[in-house]
Specification:
By secondary structure, the chain is α/β, with parallel strands linked by helices. The chain has six helices and eight strands; from the N terminus they run αβαββββαβαβαβα. The two termini are 18 Å apart.
């Protein structure tokens, strides 16, 4: 993705359709951009895909059973009764030619083997984190860095104690150029802002390696 494409994507993302304006995929769409949303168990990945997709998302959520006891830590999310066992998929039509495909990765360690395949062909990624469980996001960041995939970090708001952005950045050992923002994954507007921030980050990275004319 060069800087011109990133500029167009930024402008298009800023005008995402509202729920009332959802339309089928245009026959003229010929440019698909893949975005992956990763993070720990129960941080809101499925919720974000659902909130921003302009189609009914495909999800692979299953009811949690006793088999998860001792494997999934529910202390921070005691109300959670289902979990993603493969991936979530949503779609956003940026314009008549460009479509953004969203993949939400499963958060539990036993499904991490799927991540490397999901990262293949990915333009960029969103690491969704819960301030109460920052350690759950370390593996996601490590794998993205291993693959050389650009990413931003979005702090999903669950209420409770607030931490300074610099403390969160230090805890995640983020490079200074990785954006760290706040969001509410339940909100379409907030999730859209996260996507815009990611595209802007990709644009800045593309501009940094594009030779001056």
């Amino acid at each position: 993705m060069d800087s011109a494409d990133a500029s167009e994507a930024t402008a298009a993302t800023a005008t995402l359709p509202t729920a009332a304006e959802h339309t089928p995929l245009s026959a003229t769409a010929d440019n698909g951009l893949k975005i992956v949303i990763v993070g720990g168990f129960g941080v809101g990945k499925t919720t974000m895909v659902r909130s921003v997709s302009d189609i009914r998302p495909l999800n692979t959520e299953e009811t949690m059973t006793q088999a998860s006891i001792g494997k999934d830590d529910l202390k921070a999310v005691p109300q959670k009764t289902s979990t993603t066992v493969a991936f979530d998929f949503g779609r956003i039509s940026l314009d008549e030619q460009t479509v953004l495909y969203l993949f939400g990765a499963p958060g539990q360690e036993r499904f991490w083997f799927l991540w490397d395949r999901l990262f293949a062909g990915t333009l960029g990624a969103i690491v969704l984190v819960d301030d109460r469980r920052l350690a759950d996001s370390w593996y996601a960041i490590d794998r993205l860095e291993h693959h050389g995939t650009p990413f931003i970090v979005a702090r999903n708001q669950f209420g409770g104690e607030e931490f300074a952005a610099e403390d969160v950045r230090d805890a995640l050992d983020l490079d200074p150029d990785v954006p760290l923002i706040e969001c509410d994954a339940r909100s379409r507007a907030s999730s859209k802002d996260v996507l815009i921030e990611l595209v802007r980050h990709l644009q800045s990275l593309a501009a940094a390696v594009t030779p001056a004319p």
